[in-house]
Automatic annotation (TrEMBL):
Taxonomic lineage from the root: Bacteria, Bacillati, Actinomycetota, Actinomycetes, Propionibacteriales
Residue stretches in coiled coil: none
Name of the protein described by the UniProt record: Putative thioredoxin
UniProt-listed GO biological process terms: response to stress
PROSITE patterns given in the database record: THIOREDOXIN_2
Biased segments, Gly residues type: 30-45
Amino acid sequence: MSQQPFSRPGAIDLSGLRQPANTPAPGAGAPAGGAPAGSAGGAAPGGAYSVTITEQNFQEVLEASRTAPVVLVFHSPQQSPESSQMARDVETVVAEHEGRFLAGDVDIDAVPGIAQAMQIPQVPLMLVLLDGRPATQPIPGPAPIEDIRALFAQLVQQLTAQGIAGRHAPRGAAPVAEGEEPQADPRYAAAQDALGEGNIDLAVAEYQKLVDANPADTEASAGLAMAKVLQRTQGVDLNAARQAAAEAPDDIDAQTMVADLDMLGGHVEDAFGRLTELVRRTAGNERDKARTHLLGLFAAVGNDDPRVIRGRQNLASALF
């Protein structure tokens, strides 16, 4: 499998789903009994980050791609049993990324209308969706699981480079009862305890361990980003930092320091705006340094925060 760069082509045409459910897609067999596999929103056998696609839940799965990528795998147990093996392998690899992706199992024998609407030419076929749109070219198979792992590693690198750090919630996770406190995740205990004790350097080290172990862990990435803000601003005089930034509007270090201080003061949009304008005014290594710092602040706030969404739009405008 070759590397598939992320892009933003047009939205998916779902007009084909208005046909009766038993209308076969080109090259697809009719579903047994005419019933779609799975239930709306139900988890597929692959685990907490997989879902069996039906005509009832397809739109909901597309919407889920606004949080983090959704990987659809089209296969046909009737026509190509080996294509279903690829679907299972993708579910296995997706589970290893703990929410960085959601696997959508599309059995075209059960839901031919979806295959027809998506104009699927063959099985197995993998399609990565982001923001409700195809984010790569269709990726044909079959492929061994080692190649699938390598492809997902490339996709994670591209997501990270673009500052896209969203993560899907586990499917079928037990809800928290009303009035009950959500259970703390013990993975973050050491870092959070260090923050509570004011040991910022230790907190950074603990969060870094988590990120190194699992780059797809967005909670750890956000914690690390904010801990680094705290680390960079320790002992800094706010007034002196603001004066230095006012006297040197294109000084990267001075401007990023004030952006960090704005973050700590709750002035998130001011921090984003300052660095976005810095990106707009600078070039080369300085521009890249300002952009990278801004992406770190996006990670600290959270990928689905409306201020981050606006900030990404403004950054794109400043870059292009």
